[in-house]
Design goal:
With 124 residues, the chain is mostly beta strands. A hairpin with a 5-residue loop joins strand 5 and strand 6.
Length: 124
């Protein structure tokens, strides 16, 4: 089993920055791929960014140039640096992990384990 715990969510104003963290424990290794998803009220959960075991990343078009995903394998922690935040970024942000590590995907079906989420609210 893998446990994922997100933190760092907050309320910020438009243009602000936040860094989300996801602490992983249990049977997780640097060979797993990991990702951030988000879900706003009344909308489907969508992939934001992912990172594979080699550090290669994929980002959604809506966050390219503003959000950066990274991982610290020594700390078993995943990060999402979010800059130039917009009201449409408001959502619950979830981290996820997958046993398939040689590539990552923004499709939620590709992930085995999920955290409980952290709320991000961006006000105009």
């Amino acid at each position: 089993q893998v446990q994922l715990v997100e933190s760092g969510g907050a309320s910020v104003q438009t243009g602000g920055s936040l860094r989300l963290s996801c602490a992983a424990s249990g049977y997780i290794t640097s060979a797993d791929s990991m990702a951030w998803f988000r879900q706003a009220p009344g909308k489907e959960r969508e992939g934001v960014a992912c990172i594979d075991r080699d550090g290669d990343t994929v980002s959604a078009d809506s966050v390219k140039g503003r959000f950066t995903i990274s991982r610290d394998n020594a700390k078993n922690t995943l990060y999402l640096q979010m800059n130039t935040l917009k009201p449409e970024d408001s959502a619950i942000y979830y981290c996820a992990s997958s046993r398939i590590g040689n590539y990552c995907t923004l499709g939620k079906g590709g992930y085995n384990y999920w955290g409980q989420g952290t709320q991000v609210t961006v006000s105009s």
